[in-house]
């Protein structure tokens, strides 16, 4: 590939990925804020509390076809709603790796056996690490400034506005009172849109850096690198594939066809699975964005979680193919 073509490939990747991420981020943030407005925080806490909360969180994660970066606004929304920390972490891990489309692709390309092993290990490891992070108190490593609402004393301000509206309605005609409902809906929509854009502005520098890194890797790292690595021993190749995967930025649905191509070229299936999980579960752009949300201990714990899951799943699938 010529130098100009590499630059063009990197630029195309940056523009399309950044536009997709920005739109997804604002859209998901708006929907989460809307749910947060109508769904009482007590209800969210109740749903995601106890052992059943992990199951519900992983079901939500498996039902949402997000990539690793666009999962973040929903995670922030759950944390703001004071959902239990362990289930939220289980959701964060499950969402980019497991959804109906990914399962269908796995089933068609790799067969039922590999798909079941992949799905079971993703859910099992998400549950185990969610419980461990909860029990060891890693919630204290979430940055509190981002978890707060835009303004302090928002409840009291809402009450004051409601009282003002009631006074105006009492002193005005019935027609003007009936118009307040539509005005209220419009003002709510504008408020949620402003909050979504505000969250995007906070994350924008991290998003730009993350996508730029992903674009550089996409445009300038040769694809032949992966096939050359296939000659390495499996005990080296599987962890190495997981490390390489972290430096990629791909959706699981995008990674699976690439994985099928690598497997067809002779790359061990365990290493392919390790690359897929690490690439879709903890890409470098996502980690750059997570640094805005997490302190270092929690960020490192998340990386270890994805790395261990990638290695354990890869080794298990390799043993399965040998048996």
From TrEMBL:
InterPro entries, A to Z: DUF318, UPF0718_permease
First and last residue of the signal peptide: none
Organism domain of life: Bacteria
Membrane-spanning parts: 12-34, 54-76, 88-110, 116-138, 200-221, 233-250, 262-284, 296-320
Pfam families according to UniProt: ArsP_1
Location relative to the cell: Cell membrane
Alphabetized UniProt keyword annotations: Cell membrane, Membrane, Transmembrane, Transmembrane helix
GO cellular component: plasma membrane
Parts forming coiled coils: none
Membrane topology: Multi-pass membrane protein
Keyword Nucleotide-binding: no
Family matches, as PANTHER family: PERMEASE, PERMEASE RV2963-RELATED
Family stated for the protein in its record: Belongs to the UPF0718 family.
Protein name, entry field: Permease
């Amino acid at each position: 590939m010529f130098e100009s073509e590499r630059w063009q490939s990197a630029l195309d990747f940056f523009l399309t990925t950044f536009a997709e991420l920005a739109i997804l981020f604002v859209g998901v943030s708006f929907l989460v804020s809307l749910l947060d407005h109508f769904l009482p925080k007590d209800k969210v806490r109740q749903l995601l509390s106890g052992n059943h909360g992990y199951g519900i969180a992983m079901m939500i994660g498996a039902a949402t076809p997000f990539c690793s970066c666009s999962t973040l606004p929903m995670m922030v929304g759950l944390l703001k709603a004071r959902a239990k920390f362990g289930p939220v972490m289980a959701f964060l891990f499950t969402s980019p790796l497991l959804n109906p489309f990914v399962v269908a692709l796995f089933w068609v390309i790799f067969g039922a056996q590999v798909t079941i092993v992949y799905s079971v290990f993703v859910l099992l490891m998400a549950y185990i690490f969610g419980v461990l992070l909860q029990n060891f108190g890693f919630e204290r490593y979430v940055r509190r400034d981002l978890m707060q609402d835009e303004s302090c004393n928002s409840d009291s301000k809402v009450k004051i506005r409601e009282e003002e509206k009631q006074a105006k309605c009492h002193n005005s005609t019935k027609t003007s009172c009936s118009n307040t409902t539509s005005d209220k809906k419009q003002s709510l929509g504008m408020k949620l849109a402003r909050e979504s854009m505000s969250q995007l502005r906070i994350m924008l520098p991290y998003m730009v850096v993350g996508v730029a890194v992903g674009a550089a890797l996409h445009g300038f790292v040769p694809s032949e690198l992966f096939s050359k690595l296939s000659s390495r021993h499996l005990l080296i190749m599987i962890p190495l594939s997981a490390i390489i995967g972290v430096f990629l930025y791909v959706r699981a649905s995008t990674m699976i066809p690439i994985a099928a191509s690598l497997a067809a070229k002779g790359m061990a299936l365990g290493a392919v699975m390790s690359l897929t999980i690490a690439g879709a579960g903890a890409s470098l752009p996502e980690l750059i964005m997570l640094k805005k949300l997490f302190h270092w201990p929690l960020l490192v714990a998340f990386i270890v979680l994805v790395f261990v899951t990638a290695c354990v799943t890869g080794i298990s699938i390799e043993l399965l193919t040998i048996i």
